[in-house]
Amino acid sequence: MQAEADMSDPRILEKRRVSVEEAMRRLPTPEGHRFATVLEHGTLDIEIYAPRGTDPQKPHSRDEVYFVVSGRGEFRNGSRIERFAPGDVLFVPAMETHRFETFTDDLVVWVMFYGPEGGEAALASSP
């Protein structure tokens, strides 16, 4: 995830509201990806993510927040496994191992990447 947005699509930069229905029309992408950037502003990147079968995620370089739209399952967040359901919010610090380990086939989440490379914790450790 966290792919570069298609800057030739001015709708990404101009939008301030995107519905789940509208975002889901972007999936899968022509490359077969199950995520797509739908809004950008400053350091904030908002994506829709709807994995099917398995979740191939690797750690990301920025902090991220997931907001569960639909689906249930278990989420690996570092060394912990947490159950999730619609309406839940999941925070993952930059560079943390994470993935949706088991989940229903209707899983849809908003993903929000924000802040600097290395996450906000990197700012706290800067001189």
According to CATH, the fold-level topology is Jelly Rolls
Low-confidence segments:
none
Order of helices and strands: HHEEEEEEEEH
Strand order in the sheet with the most strands: 1-2-8-3-6
The Rg value, from CA coordinates, equals: 14 Å
Number of domains: 1
Number of strands: 8
**Global outline:** globular
Short description:
With 127 residues, this protein is mainly beta. Helix content is 12%, strand content 38%.
Please explain how this structure is put together.
By secondary structure, this protein is mostly beta strands. The chain has a single domain (10-124), classed as Jelly Rolls (Sandwich). 12% of the residues lie in helices and 38% in strands. It has three helices and eight strands; from the N terminus they run ααββββββββα. Strands 1-2-8-3-6 form a five-stranded antiparallel β-sheet. A hairpin with a 2-residue loop joins strand 4 and strand 5 (80-84). The longest helix is centred in the first third of the chain and has 5 residues, at 10-14. It is globular, with a radius of gyration of 14 Å. It starts with 9 loop residues before the first helix and ends with a helix.
